[in-house]
Amino acid sequence: MGRLSALFDPESVGVVGATDREGSVGRAILENLQETYDGEIVPVNPSREQVLGLECYSNATAAPAIDLAVLVVPPDVVLEVLDDLGETDTRAVVVVTAGFAESGEKGARREQRLRERAERYDLEIVGPNSLGVMSTVNGLNATFGPDSPREGAISFLSQSGAFVTAVLEWADEQRIGFQHVVSLGNKADLDETDFLREWGDDPGTDVIIGYLEGIDDGTAFLETARAVTEDTPIVLVKAGRTDAGAQAASSHTGAIAGSERAYETGLEQAGVIRAHSVQELFDFARALSGLPEPDTDGVAVVTNAGGPGVLATDAVGDSRLEMASLSAQTTDGLAEVLPDEATRYNPVDVIGDADADRFGDALETVLEDDAVGAAIVVSAPTAVLGYDRLAETIIEKHEDSGKPIVTCLMGGERARAAEQVLRGFGVPNFFDPTRAVAGLEALTRYREIRERTIDEPTTFDVDRERARAVLARAKRYSDNRLGVESMKLLEAYGIPTPAGEVVSDPERASEVARAIEGDVVMKIVSPDVSHKSDIGGVRVGVSDEEVASAYEDIVARVRTYQPDSTILGVQIQELVEMEDSTETIVGMNRDPQFGPLVVFGLGGIFVETLEDTAVRVAPIGESEARDMIDEIQASPLLRGARGREPAHIDAITETIQRLSQLVVDFPSILELDVNPLVVAPEGVQAIDLSLTVDTDRLEGDEP
After folding, report:
1. pLDDT tens digits, residue range 505-556?
2. Which of 82, 360, 448, 450 is deepest in the core (most CB within 10 A)?
3. Among 498, 513, 567, 505, CA closest to 543
């Protein structure tokens, strides 16, 4: 174990608040420890001399050495106990006691003081408001849960204590075992990232699973999970919402990247496999903890039952897997071992009178095919088929081939007995063929996670001081919003923009227009006008002679429709040729957990209607930027579908990366939209800009 070894492998456990009172949490924890724990148990309670036959001590300083302290005292006493523990060699603490941040403002202040003591005394604290911790390595059950887990290779974290007790009871019925279990509680000190880091280095943990309602530090979580998943898969059920949705109304990007989309993106980039139910969580975990990764996505189905075989085939079709195309050599081999009535093609139907040997011959034959990465054995019970013998045959072929096999042995008690044998050799059994396919798909997803390469973000030569000066203008406005008058922000970071200027009188408008070749676009510049075109605030294709009168007309229309609006001027901008071009959007929304979320997709008037976008957590490297382009449904348009000249993909890729660098460099930027970003064969042009700035935070941005 690593730095948290005192939590999961302590030589002694102190229960502060231990008691023999029936129905109490202190008694339940002590009884759980007495039942299975190998080390020394130290009760602490100033009101007792003995508890359940064990000598009891008045406080932690008077007790023998305690590696792990479990606190079940009133919330007002917790801080005093931590002060006592700070004078001892104790390094790990579980605070079972509730009454902290979850209980209101007073509890939140108490939790802050707890956090301060953790830092002051160098304590590793789980909780408060935690069910406790478990480790089957030494029989540790320092919880008030009703049962101890079976021994296994799965380590399990949960933000809900009730979820832990329910899952452990269900897992025991399913004969699923665990290495370590922790109830995170309020996460005042240790959080999910700490346990990922610990278990990623634990040779006894094959799979990390968990239930989370929120992630405290998305950046640290993402970095840690990426490192851990190089060797150890992570499967999580994520419930709840972030607060990002509250900002969504102020930008297109906020609406796209807020709330659930943020977690979906963050977990995907972190290499976490996301489950949507307890059943999925353990279906994935069972496959990942016992089976090798498949070399290909091709699946062979071997069955004695037509209907379930079709269900398995449909499930493969609905997944990222595919039904393997068997070679002529394989089908010829199947013809030699199967009766004429059998089906030699995938799915392979060995028909209803098959015994274990026929199943084994067919399974061995398909596993020798290079197109087959994994196999599913689907069987209905018959009088001529012994499930015990079938289980032995499957195990033999599994070990000989080195390829993953999952089974769907349908039926009652006879299937359960065979299932137990199979599980002992790492072969999971599922009653439903769809779940069997999902287990194999988890293996493929993990293989893809391990194989992907994440390049370092490019650091471009930019003008940060010029950008800072532009952002500082937001202090002038009550809502801290900037618009097209701030296009020089993009120029400072090397993002191409059309020639132009914001002017405040018709004469200057005419001067700027004459300096631009061809007709121009004119737009009202006002922080109060969201949809400029709707109220006549935009004119396209204005000649030099018409610019002055168009200026007066635009301002007058805005004054008529929104008389209270603040008008900063009118933007005079080069007219961008739209033939062979596509309007896209690139933007950012700052999520409370994961930080800057960069969005790319189809833009212009289609952004809200079609919602064809890709999202990534910044900073973004070149390969991730290219993946974002390929991910959207409109990608074929950009790459030259149906005779169109392809857009300048390299220019789009670079723009995404430059915007990523901008929002990482300036955490004060809360939201940003470049819409549209016009992409064409010769390059890109940012036509319009809107952003929101936290001016207080701007002072803290690094120069």
Report:
1. 999 999 999 999 999 999 999 988 877 888 999 999 999 999 999 999 999 9
2. 82
3. 513
